[in-house]
Amino acid sequence: QVQLVESGGGLVQPGGSLRLSCTASGSIFRVYNMAWYRQAPGKQRELVATLTNDGSTNYVDSVKGRFTTSRDAGKNTVYLQMNSLKPEDTAVYYCNLARGPAYPGDYWGQGTQVTVSS
User: Fold this and answer.
1) 47/1: higher pLDDT
2) Continuous segment of H or E residues that includes residue 18
3) Per the count of CB atoms within 10 A, which of 2, 25, 36, 67 is most buried?
């Protein structure tokens, strides 16, 4: 059973930065694909970024140029670096692990709150 533990959320002013972390219970990132989702109040969960096992990344248009996802296989950790944050980025962010090419996969982190406000 895979467990994903997230950290790094918080309150930040517009224009600020945060880095989210997602640590897995085993050495899995070289095999599986990862994704970051977010869900704002009253809205559906949205796919924000993906990171495949070969290192390819994709982003939703609204975060391109501002967010970057990466991994440290030695630490079993995936990161979401978020820069130039906007109030509309406010949401609960979730990491997700997929065993195949389709998202979302079977495993979710517990979620971490990101609030962008002055």
Assistant:
1) 47
2) strand 18-24
3) 36
